[in-house]
Model the fold of this input.
Amino acid sequence: MNESNPTGTELADLARTAEELARAAGEVALGYFGARIEVETKADDTPVTIADRETESLLRAEIQRRYPDHGIFGEEHGEVRPGAPVRWILDPIDGTKSFVHGVPLWGVLIGIEVGGEPVVGVVHLPALGETVTAARGLGCRWNGEPCSVSAENRLEGSLVLTSDETAFHSHPAEAGWRALAAAARITRSWGDCYGHVLVATGRAQVMVDPVLASWDAAPLLTILTEAGGCFTDVSGEPTIHGRSAVSSTHPALHARVLELLAADL
Done:
């Protein structure tokens, strides 16, 4: 693969492989979904289960077997080959809190960077039977069919989502979130990766996560961009490493959301 400027064919091949692996990992996770499993609390106060660890282990083993020179960075098992030109970023179960409560709004996340730039993104929602896959310059697909964000670009007509409103408590953007929610047509907490998928597939207009890690965002910049939407951190930077995220359908809508969130920053 041309690691400085991968071709469309190379990116399409990576995207197909990433989707295949996400589906296989989803089968592992589904084997535990709805069962009584032990939930541990990590140092960052987030939950983890055997399902998270086994799912990531499968992904890492398959990536290592197929692409032994690629880097891997995962939520549960850390990083190998840092500095490799191609890096896979993994979140084996995004939405573990939903997962352990038997709520189907969780997903397997895979993002691929080439030269530090996101080029492939996959979100597979095993319990819902939905998969969104995108590669740079090749568009975004939802269960194999082309998809795009909605045409709505007015906040007053928008469905605005977040993972957990309590995440804004004592956050610098707390007042901004209240203003955003008040201006929106409707707000809901259909969160984690599912909220961003809803924006990418035209079912919601805005999704805001005030706090999230790189592995949570890894596929989202590619997916939202290729679906015709916007993805940045709360400062407006289009990055998966900004530790926050805003997805939206339109630059004008995105600018208004960021303006409201930044009102008291």
In short: The helical segments are 8-30, 50-66, 96-100, 174-183, 193-200, 214-217, 220-226, 251-261. The longest strand covers residues 86-94.
